[in-house]
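Notebook entry, structure prediction.
Reason for the run: the old model in the group folder had no record of what sequence produced it. Starting over properly, with the input documented here first.
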Amino acid sequence: MEQEGLSERHLQDIRDRIASSPFHNWFGLRLVQIGGGTAEVTVDLSEDHHNMQGIVHGGVISTLADTTMGLAVRSMLKPGLTHRTAHLSVNYLAKVEGGLLTGRGRSVHAGSKMGYGEADIVDASGTLVARANATFIVLPAPGTASPG
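New structure, fully documented this time:
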């Protein structure tokens, strides 16, 4: 049986929360698409995202990967559930010097106790710069009763 995922109302709530999130705004993350087990997030890179060598810091790429995978998994969880990253693995494939980065995450598994996602990170030219995967703990959202 195929899992349905969140309703449009719940997806819009996530979009609104991302748009008003101080962290996402400070970091420059923009949610392009979420739903049906996928998510796409971009970041327009600035000098603030660079390390001392003048290239984009690996933590920027891992943050983008974690965000896209988490949102993809979240889009498939039942209302009243949330997730936390338990394990994150990122394979860096090319250096990034600037421009726009796009993360495309997909939910591979979204169960009642754990989730698993994968993401590709590409630069503005479409070059694959990183591939990631993550395991997520699934738990009741704050302020909700544990789902039956």
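Summary: The domain at 8-140 is CATH 3.10.129.10 (Thiol Ester Dehydrase; Chain A).
The old model has been moved to the deprecated folder.
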